């Protein structure tokens, strides 16, 4: 009798198990395979690993990271429809063709991945800003070259410029002219490289010395050393015509003051994944974080020589107050179980 009963019991068990598994299986099938661009800078790399982990562990996706960089990734998405997701796309230089692809329904802006946008401009250390509350803008700083002495010639003020070969060097040099830096007794200081620029801030911070110059966020350095971005002057806003026709042009003859071009940073998604991703796509429409959060994470990664994967695990373990707002409670529990 037993041999007759066992097959029946086993079949019933299999049916029951299959019934229990069906919702999760369907959930995974809805998401399916998704390719995620792993961009080659720290904030984008760690975000791609966060997305991979949440999509895999929380939504059952078959998520794969593929190498990426801004231009080749966005071009491939526009022309070939792959990869499926660019988590942190700095779109300023590609806005026109991207907007066209979006208007045609081939690509979608899921969310502003950096809720503050990318930040560029001229900064001073917070301890200096606290000691000199009168210095709130670039024109304010230009009135006081004696507060920012050049290490090579203390009779001149110093403005540290963007590293050689970067587009922001042209922008900074032209803004230096626009704000009449030389006439006010300042000189541009070229540190030669990103490492040199970082080193100048580190040295100033560790000695609590004044510092004035170009920098950007999000970065590990601003997670370690608190800096304050200066305003561009009363009534000065971003002037696109001035920016495009002069500020971005090498050796422009007569630049005028303007705020820095806003850096828009989006998660870009293909039509295929928007339609196939289901709840997983909905997650990408909510997944946005601020520069302060990113700076803090990048600083931890730098201090611990951590990879993007390490950084993602650390963030998911230590910052549930941030990321659980992006997902449902059920998904959050799955992700927590996988990373804790």
Automatic annotation (TrEMBL):
Residues in the signal sequence: 1-28
Record-linked InterPro entries: ABC_Gly_betaine_transp_sub-bd
The ABC-type glycine betaine transport system substrate-binding domain, residue ranges: 33-317
One GO term describing the cellular component: ATP-binding cassette (ABC) transporter complex
GO molecular-function terms, A-Z: transmembrane transporter activity
Keyword terms of this UniProt record: Signal
Name of the protein this chain belongs to: Glycine betaine transporter periplasmic subunit
Gene name as annotated: opuAC1
